[in-house]
């Protein structure tokens, strides 16, 4: 019986894909006040007033903002927390 070893290129591709960061994206909605969104970003993420305002304005003007980047599991936790605060959020893989 012979041992089958994984293709070396496949192993490299899998490790590269798993190390790619993920993002939590907050989307604009017609419900939440801008001041509340700033409050959430400051309270949950601990962002400064300036950073929270900048992200809120991106949500407001661009329709969305990337509020965090990292491991997929952590980004899913962030998205769930945003839902718990009443904000619309999704998780996506970061661009290469």
TrEMBL record:
Gene Ontology molecular functions: peptidase activity
Domain Adaptor protein ClpS core: 19-90
Family of the protein in this entry: Belongs to the ClpS family.
HAMAP family linked: ClpS
Pfam families assigned to the protein according to its UniProt record, in alphabetical order: ClpS (PF02617)
Transmembrane segments: none
Function: Involved in the modulation of the specificity of the ClpAP-mediated ATP-dependent protein degradation.
InterPro entries xrefs: ClpS (IPR022935), ClpS_core (IPR003769), Ribosomal_bL12_C/ClpS-like (IPR014719)
Keyword list, A-Z: Hydrolase, Protease
Assembly with partners or alone: Binds to the N-terminal domain of the chaperone ClpA.
Protein name: ATP-dependent Clp protease adapter protein ClpS
Gene from which this protein is expressed: clpS
């Amino acid at each position: 019986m012979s041992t089958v070893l994984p293709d070396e290129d496949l192993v490299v591709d899998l490790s590269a894909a798993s190390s790619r960061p993920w993002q939590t994206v907050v989307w604009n909605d017609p419900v939440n006040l801008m001041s509340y969104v700033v409050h959430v970003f400051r309270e949950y993420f601990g962002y400064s007033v300036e950073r929270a305002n900048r992200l809120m304005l991106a949500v407001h003007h661009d329709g969305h903002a990337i509020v965090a980047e990292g491991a997929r599991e952590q980004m899913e936790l962030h998205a769930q927390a945003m839902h718990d605060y009443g904000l619309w959020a999704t998780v996506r893989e970061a661009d290469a």
